[in-house]
Amino acid sequence: MLPTFEPALLPEDVRALRAHVRAFLAAEIAAGHWSPRANSWTIFDEGFSQRCGAQGYIGMTWPKAYGGRELSSLHRFVVVEEMLAHGAPVGAHWIADRQSGGQILNFGSEDMRRSILPRICTGTCYFGIGMSEPDVGSDLASVKTRGERSNRGWRINGTKVWTSGAHRAHYLIALVRTEPRGESRHAGLTQFLIDLSRPGLKISPIENLAKERDFCEVVLEDYEALDEEVLGGPGQGWKLVTHELAQERSGPERFLSDFNLLVELIRRLDGAAHARKDVGRMVARLVALREMSISVAGMLARGVSPELQAALVKDHGMQFERDLPEEARLLLPLEPGAGTADPYEQQLARTLLFAPSFSLRGGTREVLRGIITRHMGLR
Amino acid sequence: MLPTFEPALLPEDVRALRAHVRAFLAAEIAAGHWSPRANSWTIFDEGFSQRCGAQGYIGMTWPKAYGGRELSSLHRFVVVEEMLAHGAPVGAHWIADRQSGGQILNFGSEDMRRSILPRICTGTCYFGIGMSEPDVGSDLASVKTRGERSNRGWRINGTKVWTSGAHRAHYLIALVRTEPRGESRHAGLTQFLIDLSRPGLKISPIENLAKERDFCEVVLEDYEALDEEVLGGPGQGWKLVTHELAQERSGPERFLSDFNLLVELIRRLDGAAHARKDVGRMVARLVALREMSISVAGMLARGVSPELQAALVKDHGMQFERDLPEEARLLLPLEPGAGTADPYEQQLARTLLFAPSFSLRGGTREVLRGIITRHMGLR
Amino acid sequence: MNETLAAIAETLRGILSARCDAKALREADGGAWSGDLWSALEEAGVPGSTIAEDAGGLGLGLEEAVFMARVAASHAAPVPLAETLLAQWLWHSAQGAQPAPEAPLGQRLTMHIADGLAPVAAGAAISAELARVPWARHADVLLLVIPNGDRCQLVRIGLAATGVRLTPAANLADEPRDRVHLTGVETGPRDVRSLARPAEDVLAMMALMRAAQMVGAMEAAVAISVGYANERVQFGRPLGKFQAIQSHLAGMAEELAAATVALEQAAASIGEPARRPLAWVAKALASESAGHIAAASHQVHGAIGFTREYRLQPLTRRLWSWREECGNEAFWYDKLGGLAMHNGADALWPWLTDISPSSGAISKSATNSGAT
Amino acid sequence: MNETLAAIAETLRGILSARCDAKALREADGGAWSGDLWSALEEAGVPGSTIAEDAGGLGLGLEEAVFMARVAASHAAPVPLAETLLAQWLWHSAQGAQPAPEAPLGQRLTMHIADGLAPVAAGAAISAELARVPWARHADVLLLVIPNGDRCQLVRIGLAATGVRLTPAANLADEPRDRVHLTGVETGPRDVRSLARPAEDVLAMMALMRAAQMVGAMEAAVAISVGYANERVQFGRPLGKFQAIQSHLAGMAEELAAATVALEQAAASIGEPARRPLAWVAKALASESAGHIAAASHQVHGAIGFTREYRLQPLTRRLWSWREECGNEAFWYDKLGGLAMHNGADALWPWLTDISPSSGAISKSATNSGAT
């Protein structure tokens, strides 16, 4: 009834893999390719993604036939956590590696797998998420984008929104209503692979309050999808999107987004005694969150569905991420703003502006808490 | 739309009144009658109540004809806040003074007023609250205690619970269903004056987790009430109980219950620099809460209904009361327990055990928050 | 609200609602000066309203200034109104070396407490580097506040003068917070006045003005959130029907109410030195609530609130900035806690009752309240 | 959960569920010794299970001890099981002056770290006053831990010996926390052993046992709350249908999960000195969560939870007590923060990856983790 988090032991060869990633990242930073930043999984850097691809850091768990390395979820976990902890700009390949590639592997056609997965693995093919719509947030079953049968396959009309990086991505996987809403809200939904290079699409970046253009609005106007671009089969959309969301919720980005702020805070504090207790609290919470997250990765590696545990880590991790800048600003007060060269000030300003988005991705708190209590046996 | 708290100016003669109360309380403490304690409004002390009555501190706002002094709500506010801030054992006369007397004054018969109010004012007549029932908490409209017409008036059967001090009180005012529940949940309810010295009652104290016997269960078995013991008229119960709850929610006990703990904490801290910030935060919150509470008293004095403002002060004040012991224990750690002579340790232990009850009285947080958002224009 | 304040509010709202739309705010974010808005405010006599009547102003006090700053901030007005109102009032409260004829201090004012400077002789040249001076690039005059024991010196610095150089910087809301370099800037005898208040009082007043702005911005954020919760439908019901959303909104209302009451009682007693800690309380509570209310507003809104085009972010970015300026909650709580512990356990209750403006004229026992 | 633990859990639950009912707990609150319960535990070999096998025990380790303490606490078992299990284990891990024949330490044990005492010579008489010694009045032996540089001395004190006097005291849960007065209590050569661990390690182990008890009590409190939310109807619907209640319960589950994971990883690596900070994390998180979970459980329950007859209070009163014992969260967070800052910013991430038992055998870079 109460959630259990079985401990996972990282495979022995993870030690070498971790050392490899650390050396790679250190060389990247030393070469001045980028500097560590909080919330780095929203930063789009094609060059970095290609270099990650060359190292074999993308699509690691997929079959070798598709460019993968057939490693475990625990191996992928270690690469991802090292990237995030070092504030590396993983944004370009992020969605493809975390969720879209898996959808294609599990539910796409063989052609789709052969044509797309290897390009994801080389860090040259990027994805956006096509779930949300202007009036559809957490309540995904109410999507209004419609797909109708056409001569060539399907004609899709509607508007997707909050699709990260769609203006720079190659594809998105869209959740579309292909049958009128009936008794079951979850029936009649279908996932499509949308090729962003085709006609019938209008993509407009949406500026966020941090003045970055990460999210997009994607308007589909008579977009033509082929039958073989349906994932998993018509009407399977709800099952597929649930699978996709579990992937989206399970990663260490749910508590490592602003890890870099904690690092720079500790650097600037320089041992200040007044901060010990609060720093220790943040570190303690991280120790537990990371262990919970490893346990989730272990469940994935064993083929167990971590729906409850993933929701729990995400909600708890999100709280940690939101608390961190608020703790920092009280321990080391300053007036945050643009144009400072100090890493702590930079990370604090960036994190304060991004904090409202921490709870947006992968479902709101209420959705997550509903999942948690349902599993706890609340009727 | 947003709540406003008009500032109130205490009448000029309040200054003398306050000095009078302070001198009285200082003399009480010096005489060793009692020592200041947190949550003192649950402490039953008949002698103290009688001495308060002799000073004219009870029923102050009521007509002189009934033993009152015809002073304003602001005068009463000052007396009450001084009592609470000094941790005086006001429990015996508390309910009668705060709410039951007012119900009788406003909705009782002239006979009832003449026979009961003067005794309340002398501190010799005490009341319990007869709202809750074993399966009825916040949802008062679902009370199951029933009143049926009888030869002499009404025959009442049912069980009331959480009635503070019923085993030591003379009366309670009970909310009773006198007509079957129909379309409107709020119709068919009636308030009765219940004389606890009559037959047809079984009163059992309920021990609380602090091992005090403050709450009681009162079983009414064919209790006979007279027609003239109906308050306001049959079917008026919902209106009356709403009025009573507004009185219950509006007082300074909603943030002063554990004031004494803050005083003893400051004494024991002895200027410790590490505690400055947190002590300052508690003081700042108190400054604002007290001003809000005075504003509510001012509204009562002007005859304006403070439903929104009272709910807001109660919910916010309750949060303050619950935070205070938690802050204290981190600033001045100790292992709380029984049998210590140190005032700080005593107050901390007592407050920790009583804290769960802070949110019980006068409606749960959800009920209060519903009132607040309704007034804010949430549809 | 009294009649003067009601009239001011009506005038201000008329000016602001027309001139603080999304386009105007976006231009200001980009560094443009909101000249139209400022001219309209000047035509209505707002920025000069705290100038003494005999110097051509309306002679309004700080209580009214607090109110105007609050209303302006509820529209995220990108102009130095709070700074101008306070600087004008301070200048006209101070004694000049040569009292008459009264010369205007300036039009668009900013101010800064220069803790590092020693009092200057009239006519002396000033060199200093001042960090994060609000609106400096758009202001014509900087009022420099130099601590001088239990008084302070007010020095008028024309920002177009020789020896003044700016390095632009901004807060999270893109409000200018420039670095001002003063190199041998000359001051005339009319440029220096002496204020019979310690610098920490001036800091408390600056903090009070920021608290006023925060309350204004929080009021707007709460109102927008309630509106959104009523409009937006999710799972077939308006958001506002969900208990979790109700809980967010009620919590916001509670914190806002406490911050507002704290602001109003501090503003009402700003003339009483013994009640100065009320300004500390006001800034501290507003600063702490600002974070909670900004976070809860965004929580209620979801993704739309995170976009630049939506009207929530001009308010929340200001809240995240203002809570740090002129002392954040940790700074003022610390000061207040120090005072409470200095006064001692048994003085806490008498202090609480005396400090409230509801008690009327303050009694002797509260006169220790300024010490820390 | 491995098989040993599963078997232990079954045995324990069988004993506890029959003997920790409301009546038994009320009698223990009143000061009575729960002799039946203890005898049943002894018959099952539980209290002696951490005695070395060659000394007649089961030779279980601290990981199992942690688990047993957790299960016992989920029934609010009013006996010194956690203390006995740890004291036995420490005694049998230490080197005696005369290793054989192995003498039993005692039956019902308590322990205390005497920071103020200097190491004693074998056979010396001890005088000291020890505050808040758990269960002293019901124990037969007190294991005194005397710091001695990077080791410590373990001294066996028979509580029936001449020169021992008790003043009863208790925690908020009415568990004995007595004051023990030692006046020239004599110790024999077999009563003193030397443990190759610093006293701060022993404190961390005591803290870990309390963390285990807290996790057990929190598990029970959460389970009771879920059950109540399913049963109790309000406004025509079960409590659990209300979003506010769901939010309470989900928040409880999250904190409990974090505290449990922290406990389990600390218990799994209790033998590795470099991972000792995991015990600090476990006690700190459990202590902080204890307050939140106790408050939320009461919030879900309303008035019924505030009564003594309801089964929530034996758990929550223990949580309020245990969180302060063996260092509260402020104490351990402070220590951990000191370590993190001592290690430095760039060491934080490697430290985090190394400290986790998931990394397997610990690498060199984490060996500084014991320093503060």
What layout of secondary structure does this protein have?
The complex is a heterotetramer, with two copies of chain A (about 375 residues) and two copies of chain C (about 375 residues).
Chain A: H1 14-30, H2 46-55, H3 73-85, H4 91-107, H5 110-121, E1 127-130, E2 146-149, E3 153-161, E4 171-177, E5 189-195, E6 201-206, E7 215-226, E8 230-231, H6 237-249, H7 253-256, H8 259-269, H9 276-301, H10 307-331, H11 343-354, H12 365-375
Parallel strand pairs in A: 1-4
Antiparallel strand pairs in A: 2-3, 3-7, 4-5, 5-8, 6-7
Chain C: H1 3-19, H2 22-29, H3 35-43, H4 62-74, H5 81-93, E1 95-96, E2 109-113, E3 125-134, E4 141-148, E5 151-158, E6 164-167, E7 177-186, E8 192-195, H6 199-231, E9 233-234, E10 237-238, H7 243-268, H8 277-301, H9 313-322, H10 329-343, H11 348-355
Parallel strand pairs in C: 2-4
Antiparallel strand pairs in C: 1-8, 3-7, 4-5, 5-8, 6-7, 9-10
Helix pairs in contact in C: 1-3, 1-4, 4-5, 4-6, 4-7, 6-7, 6-8, 6-9, 7-8, 8-9, 8-10
